[in-house]
């Protein structure tokens, strides 16, 4: 008998007769010790299906029909008290952003111990002992001290380890992981996936993995369930789905997945123009000071020099905390440099302020990771795109309105969308609006900070194609910040690899990705999941063989090929 047996599940919001269901007649079974991946685009019903298992649907969400059997008991017929006893103890859940699950005012130790006391009926001392053991098992050093720290003192990857430690301590029969690695860089992602796999193997736990990363699916899943429009469109063995997908939608989904085996972008002779962004030995530190005990400042960016030319995409890659986003913000003058110069379109913006800075900022614009957070929810789409033109001045309302319509169409949206609000658009549409807004003042370079990481693969491919098309038409330069190396392969001409505030490798994308010379770059590439179940396990073996040395405080650049450099 299956551990979980869902049949005919239909979920809707509002009146049944007026609004179509968001989950429509879904059948899903999960065996004991099995890993099932639930995949599909945003709005396909993946998360709603998972949330219904633990009775955590949004306020207006309602199960209209169907049943959810867990260990033979229909959870839809359980009362609140029964569901509370099942949650945590028998069914655990890990969310994309663990900060939404962890209480910010309680220490990590208090939260782990409380869960063990409530669900496992252990004493305070026994709970603390097991909490320390679980943190150590997930690779968290100095676990006893870490128990006294708060969630904000942990990185994203460490917080996700805490959630896995909590689940390991409670030993649930079913673990639901909703996009558990989406916001993490490849090395941390690989560690989290290894922990989840070990948990399934050691505790005989079943795992329902919700993700839009097909590399993660290929690496982890026994079976794959593909959803679209609230329905299951295909289901089967992971290897069979990747090798011979039957549904048109599944074929399109897999075809859109970027890989490190894709051909690199072609660069014609004289393809790039002059420099539009130049960073010269730029440094930025945070923290330091202290009254009784002096703290050494953290060097987020340490003496970085880079150049981006017209028509060129320079990808900036590295782990979380490597300084990528800080460097992007320094390029925008959203952060102030401690040392060095930032030259945009021939002008040193580190020395500008007021009107002079506003004038030069028209040459450099930014696209952010979360298109919803970067759009003002009170402004219509038209007002959002018009705002930079209004601030810049020099155009009347009629011309601005015409320009807004033209920009929407340039970004692949209908001009009529100008009257809509951000919440009425999908994630991909919102990112197109963000691109249209960035183009409003005719910039020469765009800083794109993880612009596709929050998007499904099919939407991601369309956004990348749009950015490439715009670049080729208008000689735009991109500083493209990402942790997704397959995306780098698709869009970048050159790659700069960043580690602990410093560039450790720089060269043409094909050279860096195909012939990496720095051990850190090799470790990043080895950690990236491959969207091919036949190559499962390669990542683990390759990553284990690479030893990354400590980063020396002083290092020299060494040429290892034609315009290919490493920090030796």
From TrEMBL:
Q: Where is the ABC transporter domain?
A: 1-254, 277-525
Q: Name the major location.
A: membrane
Which key words tag this protein in UniProt?
Answer: ATP-binding, Cell membrane, Membrane, Nucleotide-binding, Transport
Q: Where in the cell is it found?
A: Cell inner membrane
Database matches in CDD domains: ABC_NikE_OppD_transporters (cd03257)
Q: Does the keyword Cell membrane apply?
A: yes
Give a GO cellular-component term: plasma membrane
* The keyword Transport is assigned to this record: yes
The family annotation for this protein states: Belongs to the ABC transporter superfamily.
Q: What is this protein called?
A: ABC transporter ATP-binding protein
Tell me the organism: Jiella avicenniae
């Amino acid at each position: 008998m299956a551990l979980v047996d869902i049949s005919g599940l239909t979920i809707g919001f509002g009146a049944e007769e007026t609004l179509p269901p968001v989950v429509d007649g879904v059948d899903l079974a999960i065996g004991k010790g099995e890993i099932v991946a639930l995949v599909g685009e945003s709005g396909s019903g993946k998360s709603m299906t998972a949330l219904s298992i633990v009775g955590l649907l949004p306020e207006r969400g309602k199960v209209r029909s169907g049943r959810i059997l867990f260990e033979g008991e229909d959870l839809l017929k359980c009362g609140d008290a029964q569901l509370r006893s099942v949650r945590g103890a028998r069914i655990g859940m890990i969310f994309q952003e663990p900060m939404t699950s962890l209480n910010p005012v309680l220490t990590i130790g208090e939260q782990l111990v409380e869960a063990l006391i409530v669900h496992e009926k252990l004493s305070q001392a026994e709970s603390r002992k097991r909490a320390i053991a679980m943190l150590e098992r997930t690779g968290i050093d100095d676990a006893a001290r870490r128990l006294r720290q708060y969630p904000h003192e942990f990185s994203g990857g460490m917080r996700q380890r805490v959630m896995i430690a909590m689940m390991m301590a409670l030993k649930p029969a079913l673990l639901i992981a909703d996009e558990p690695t989406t916001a993490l860089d490849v090395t941390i992602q690989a560690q989290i996936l290894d922990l989840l796999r070990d948990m399934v193997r050691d505790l005989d736990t079943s795992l329902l993995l919700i993700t839009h990363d097909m590399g993660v699916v290929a690496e982890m899943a026994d079976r794959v369930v593909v959803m679209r429009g609230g329905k299951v469109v295909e289901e089967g063995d992971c290897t069979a789905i990747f090798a011979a997908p039957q549904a048109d939608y599944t074929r399109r989904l897999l075809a859109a997945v970027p890989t490190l085996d894709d051909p690199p972008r072609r660069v014609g002779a004289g393809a790039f123009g002059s420099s539009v962004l130049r960073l010269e030995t730029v440094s930025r530190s945070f923290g330091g000071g202290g009254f009784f005990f002096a703290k050494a400042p953290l060097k987020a960016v340490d003496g970085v020099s880079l150049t981006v030319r017209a028509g060129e995409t320079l990808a900036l890659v590295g782990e979380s905390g490597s300084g990528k986003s800080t460097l992007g913000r320094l390029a925008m003058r959203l952060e102030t440099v401690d040392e060095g110069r930032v030259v945009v379109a021939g002008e040193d913006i580190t020395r500008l302020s007021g009107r002079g800075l506003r004038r030069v900022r028209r040459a450099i614009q930014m696209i952010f990771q979360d298109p919803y957070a970067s759009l003002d929810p009170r402004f219509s789409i038209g007002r959002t795109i018009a705002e930079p033109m209004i601030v810049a001045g020099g155009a009347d309302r009629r011309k601005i309105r015409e320009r807004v319509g033209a920009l929407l169409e340039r970004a692949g949206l209908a001009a009529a969308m100008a009257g809509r609000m951000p919440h009425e658009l999908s994630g991909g549409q919102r990112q197109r609006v963000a691109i249209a807004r960035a183009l409003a003042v005719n910039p020469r370079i765009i800083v794109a900070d993880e612009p596709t990481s929050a998007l499904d693969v099919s939407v991601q491919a369309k956004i990348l194609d749009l950015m490439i098309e715009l670049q080729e038409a208008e000689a735009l330069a991109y500083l493209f910040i990402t942790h997704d190396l397959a995306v780098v392969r698709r869009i970048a001409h050159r790659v700069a690899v960043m580690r602990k505030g410093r560039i450790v490798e720089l060269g043409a994308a094909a050279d860096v990705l195909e012939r990496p010379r720095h051990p850190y770059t090799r470790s990043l590439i080895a950690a990236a999941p491959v969207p091919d179940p036949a190559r499962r396990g390669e990542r683990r073996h390759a990553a284990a063989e690479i030893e990354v040395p400590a980063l020396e405080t002083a290092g020299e650049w060494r040429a290892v090929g034609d315009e290919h450099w490493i920090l030796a």
